[in-house]
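Need a sequence for this fold. Nothing fancy.
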């Protein structure tokens, strides 16, 4: 149980990216009243949490209805997470965990950023959704382990909310370099987990089975 808790927390921390969320939140809400910032951060966290929990509960069922096997999910999810991990290591930003330039430009013109881009795609982006389904698939048939995954979602979204509420102080404390260092460390860990997911998916598929 401890192992899956560590894997779930590490994977979700890397794919949700609380530090990145806080940095973007600080930039998009600069000059806004404190109460309004808090309201948007809380609303975004609630929406993102609901989205990820829904994916955790029905994501595998949805994939089954599309004829996608768990082995294919593990392999594809591992590849996606590996690409995200590589972006984190090299301090690049892709649509898997962050907004595109066009999305950020649209967000700056909005009065309320809680749903877009804060809840999605920042907190509950493609990477986090894929990781959630993958983690639940790995805990298939074990309700205790699945509860740990859902609990990990709540913890990481709660951490993202806390960092948004403290975004100004956090950015001042760590600075751009400090936040990128933390991101790179998480990227290395995520890449290693991603490769393991790929290995597990290929092994489960039976493609390399000896006759």
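Here you go.
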């Amino acid at each position: 149980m401890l192992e899956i808790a560590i894997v779930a927390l590490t994977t979700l921390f890397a794919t949700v990216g609380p530090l990145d969320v806080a940095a973007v939140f600080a930039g998009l809400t600069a000059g806004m009243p404190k109460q309004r910032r808090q309201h948007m951060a809380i609303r975004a966290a609630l929406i993102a949490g609901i989205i990820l929990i829904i994916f955790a509960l029905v994501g595998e069922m949805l994939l089954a209805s599309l004829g996608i096997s768990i082995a294919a999910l593990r392999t594809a999810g591992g590849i996606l997470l590996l690409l995200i991990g590589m972006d984190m290591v090299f301090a690049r930003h892709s649509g898997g965990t962050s907004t595109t330039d066009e999305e950020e430009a649209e967000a700056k013109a909005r009065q309320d950023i809680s749903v877009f881009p804060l809840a999605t795609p920042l907190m509950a982006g493609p990477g986090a959704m894929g990781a959630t389904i993958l983690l639940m698939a790995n805990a298939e048939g074990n309700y205790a382990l699945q509860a740990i995954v859902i609990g990990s979602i709540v913890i990481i979204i709660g951490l993202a909310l806390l960092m948004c509420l403290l975004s100004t102080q956090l950015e001042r404390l760590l600075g751009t370099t400090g936040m990128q260092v933390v991101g790179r460390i998480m990227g290395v860990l995520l890449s290693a987990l991603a490769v393991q997911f790929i290995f597990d998916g290929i092994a489960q598929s039976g493609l390399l089975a000896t006759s």
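For context: The chain has a mean pLDDT of 85.
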